[in-house]
Design a protein that fits this description.
By secondary structure, this protein is α/β, with parallel strands linked by helices. Helix content is about 30%, strand content about 15%.
């Protein structure tokens, strides 16, 4: 491919499109239009320009990678530095922002640390979602699904460990009009020369993926819709280690505020669940909310927040009250339903059909 020839062909195609779109009866106007298009000094076409770009700096020769999995290439310096920050090997991963040029391998900056962590987590018996990657468009999620699937299936250790990559978007929702129950792929694999992850919703709910690829609107649904709560049933506190926002610059203004609130809600879900108490009526020294109706038990009641300064636990309808945050304006997730035994650190956890977002205040 010769850049000069490509530029000339593009120019010809644009000229053909514009000249076939705009036609003038007045010959003077037609000549002025052509000058506007093709004049070498004042016309619309400039260049072509040649951009010379220096190669990205490689990582130091002989550098020790902080990952247990095999890396099939020598990384750039920014990839190596990202791995040092994002690795969970013998340390807690650090929050990281990667800003480099197009084609610099930004995906590899987080792909390999996440796969490395998932391998260790699987060996420890963790069954919940370990990483969530948010994309502004489904097309990006579908493309990255192939990258993750290829990395897993071409690495014997990752493939043997059974690392699962799920793409949960509305694109393969069997509940959508016109879609069948078999919409999407059900296992990692390769079809017609292309790698793919798991995109069928039912399969991901049945066996949650280790790595979840989705968009922020779908994640909002996954936190709210009762039928999607099975996706989170194995997530103990701290099991979700990575949240990646690809194309971060797109989350600005109102959309940025929405995503910020969404991340806070996600944090509430995957950390120790704040317990809410069912009360028939307000109790002294308890911050209460108006009555609610629980569709699972069929009863109406009050949502009571345990006062952090009180040591006593509140018993109501067999549900135990547990100390909450000191911040009375925080937004909590209220899980209504029977208590599930064997939760994190021996504590009971709730498995409910309804999730309600509430903002507490003094009654």
């Amino acid at each position: 491919m010769l850049p000069a020839h490509i530029a000339e062909n593009i120019k010809k195609q644009v000229l053909y499109y514009l000249q076939s779109t705009f036609s003038f009866r007045d010959q003077d106007v037609e000549k002025a239009f052509n000058r506007f298009l093709q004049d070498p000094e004042t016309g619309i076409f400039k260049g072509p320009w040649i951009q010379l770009r220096r190669p990205f700096r490689p990582a130091p020769e002989g550098a020790t990678f902080p990952l247990d999995i095999n890396i099939p290439f020598h990384p750039f310096l920014h990839q190596y530095l990202s791995w040092k920050r994002l690795s969970s090997k013998n340390k807690k991963p650090e929050s990281t922002i990667v800003t480099t040029g197009t084609g610099s391998g930004k995906t590899e900056c987080f792909l390999y640390p996440i796969l490395d962590h998932c391998l260790r987590a699987k060996e420890q018996g963790q069954k919940g979602i370990k990483a969530i990657i948010l994309y502004p468009m489904n097309a990006l999620a579908a493309d990255q699904e192939k990258r993750f699937a290829e990395a897993v299936l071409t690495d014997p250790a990752l493939k043997t460990a059974g690392i699962r990559v799920g793409n949960y978007t509305g694109r393969y929702d069997p509940a959508a009009p016109g879609a069948g129950a078999d919409s999407g792929t059900k296992e990692l694999g390769r079809k017609e020369g292309r790698y793919h992850g798991i995109s069928n919703h039912a399969k991901q709910l049945e066996n949650p993926p280790d790595i979840l690829l989705t968009n922020y609107k779908m994640l909002d649904f996954l936190l709210m819709r009762p039928q999607d709560q099975e996706l989170w049933r194995f997530n103990e506190s701290g099991e979700l280690k990575y949240l990646v926002l690809d194309e971060l610059h797109t989350y600005d203004g109102a959309q940025g505020a929405d995503v910020a609130c969404l991340i806070r809600r996600l944090g509430r879900l995957v950390s120790d669940k704040p317990n809410f108490v069912w009360l028939d009526e307000p109790v002294q020294n308890v911050k209460s909310l108006p009555a609610f109706h629980c569709s699972e038990c069929g009863e109406a009641g009050w949502i009571g927040l345990h006062v952090p300064s009180e040591d006593t636990k509140i018993e109501a309808k067999g549900v135990r009250g547990i100390q909450l945050s000191d911040d009375p304006t925080a937004i909590y997730l209220a899980w209504f339903g029977p208590q599930q035994k064997g939760g994190n650190k021996g504590k009971g956890r709730y498995k409910g059909q309804d999730i309600v977002i509430v903002s507490p205040w003094d009654k």
